[in-house]
Amino acid sequence: MLISTRGRYALRVLLDLAENQTDGYIPMKTVAQRQNLSLKYIERIMPVLSKNEYVVGVHGKGGGYRLAMKPENYRVGDILRLAEGDLAPVACLGCDAKDCDRADICKTLPMWRDFHNMVNDYFDGITLADLLS
Known about the structure:
The protein is mainly α. It is built from six helices and two strands, in the order H-H-H-E-E-H-H-H. Strand 1 and strand 2 form a beta hairpin. The longest helix is centred in the last third of the chain and has 16 residues. It is elongated and about 60 Å long. It starts with a helix and ends with a helix.
């Protein structure tokens, strides 16, 4: 399993907003500079975060983004699943996976299922607030 740039950047952007939440709405240009990230790449991530109510955005002068909730309400697992689609280690456990013809006889499926559960449980046990401390 490999967490893509999209997932890592989403975490970094949300952490930056959490660290600077007393500053109100923060322009993504500022976040990009602080985090040394591509502004164009961040701009492709923000609509997903906004649509799913992870951030609140304001356009125009003085605009930018801020967190929609307190940092303790953001689970890393939820952020990564939102950015990545899912965290499945094999295709047959993915969100949109069709039933596998071999599931009944697959000797490795229980191992992959356990691993998938461990990864999700691990990331779901960490919040933005945990990462800030």
